[in-house]
Amino acid sequence: MNKTLFEKIWQHHLVQELDDGAALIYIDRVFLHERTGSIALKSLEADNREVVSPEHVFCTMDHIVDTLVGRDDNTKVPSGKNFILATREACIDANIKLFDVNDPQQGIVHVVSPELGIVQPGATLVCPDSHTCSQGALGALAWGIGSSEAEHALATKTLRVSKPKTMKVNFNGQLGFGVTAKDMILHLIGKYSAAGGAGYVIEFGGTAVDALDIEGRLTLCNMAVEFSAFTGLVAPDNKAVAYLEGREYAPKGALWEQAVIFWQSLYSDEHAQFDKTIDVDCADISPTITWGNSPQHACAVDSRVPHAPIDATQNQLKALNRAYEYMDLPAGSALKGLPIGAAFIGSCTNSRISDLRLAAKVLKGRKVADNVNAICVPGSTTVKRQAEAEGLDKIFIAAGFEWREAGCSMCFFAGGESFGYRQRVVTSTNRNFESRQGPETRSHLASPATVAASAVAGCIADVREYL
Ligand SMILES: CC(C)[C@H](C(=O)O)[C@@H](O)C(=O)O
Ligand code: SF4
Predict the structure, then answer these.
(1) What confidence score (pLDDT) does residue 191 get?
(2) Does the keyword 4Fe-4S belong to this entry (predicted)?
């Protein structure tokens, strides 16, 4: 007894302890995408190995696929089409379920998997993509791997894993007005650094996490990897059960009843020991935005770019000076009111229906400022259709947003499109690394509500003034 949720899932999947402290872990599901999945499948084929259990493998076109309306297999990025064609062919050969370019269920892997009930509480799921941690929101052990590990998982349904330490992060109290799951995770990383979770699997809990809906928990877990964690997860509760019921790949009938009973055993026991615990008081969290070139450069939207701490090391000083220079924002600059050139709502962090509803609430009856290139890319075709059924597309378009097809799009320059040289972008994505959204783009990570408010204002804005 007295096990953490992670320990329970680990024990259920332990095939064998290995000599060096690592373990062989059983893998329930593998999800692939055209950027890295095609490489794993091709290499498996070259080695004359087979996908051992194709019914547990899924693949989607999200990273390179174009998101312009009327798209086909052609892409903005040279050679992108080859990835799409190779992925399609490999999935057909291996008999893998593919959510192809114009499939009604296509979308970003971490949006599609929960949406279709492919990820489930207590399961292990891997994908050669770092934001697989998102899917821990449903109480699964889901983590990002490399292409060669994906090959191993495809061929053997197992993976060699070094056991992570355990961390509990409690978000206590209630979220303030205008504060979302995105602000929670940016605040955490801003306070404890982008390396704060290194070596740990993090269970998120506390009253504010209990109060989040599943989509908010997906956003929270999405950025566990930006905290350097092995992955993040949330214990499945009644909301998780209700969320999964009736979804296409969720169990049905008697299997559903059995699954729910099992899922109800998935929580950390009262006296379970974590290697580390962090308590966050939600009263301290404001709408949060990043100012620099790392997700740890996060601060309240109504604050100023921080000065280097007096005890900063030479390396820290160097990194801070680079961030000030790259972002063209000296220490002490106010964030609110800083003019922007673009606004992006999308990505596996914040492109679900609740994100679009929230942004539409801000945009309704308002117009995007002149000179702001505003783009909304729904996370999946299902989200897009749902938004259209609710009339949200009309609100986005009337405000001056471009309304796109689903995919990773401009979260990641690999899609071949960019916001332009040194453009300042307020973005609902998860990475603000240098040139992430195009050559020397200056990305400010924030919630979709803050992105919408900033698009309207033409500068970084405090969403509380727009709700
Ligand atoms: C291309 C892919 C491997 C990459 C990742 O692993 O995260 C991408 O999704 C990203 O967000 O940078
Ligand atoms: S939306 Fe962005 S962060 Fe998410 S998987 Fe795609 S490229 Fe990676």
Answers:
(1) 98
(2) yes
411 lines ligand 2 (CB under 6 A): yes
CA distances from 425 to 174, 185, 289, 403 (A): 29, 20, 12, 17
Q: The domain containing residue 416 runs over which residues?
A: 288-465
pTM: 0.98
CA distance 229 to 141: 13
* Best residue among 143, 377, 412 to mutate for probing ligand 1, ranked by most atoms within 8 Å of CB: 412
**Looking at the predicted structure, is the pLDDT value of residue 414 above 80?**
no
Q: Which atom of ligand 1 is nearest to the CA of 35?
A: 1
Cα of 172 vs centre of ligand 2, distance in Å, is 29
Residue with the smallest CA separation from ligand 1 atom 7 is: 130
Which of 353, 206, 210 is closest to 280 using CA atoms? 206
Whole-number Å distance, alpha carbon 418 to ligand 1 midpoint, is 16
Beta bridge partners of 158: 26
Q: Return the closest-CA partner of residue 79 out of 13, 35, 26, 27.
A: 35
Residues 6+ apart with CB under 8 A from 294: 194, 319, 323, 432, 433
pLDDT of residue 415: 64
Indicate whether 102 and 82 sit together in one domain.
yes
**Judgement on whether residues 346 and 277 belong to the same structural domain of the protein:** no
Q: Which amino acid appears at position 129 of this protein?
A: D
Domain boundary among 270, 285, 300: 285
Q: In the predicted model, what is the mean pLDDT of residues 96-122?
A: 98
279 and 247 share a domain? yes
Residue type, 182: K
Domain count across the chain: 2
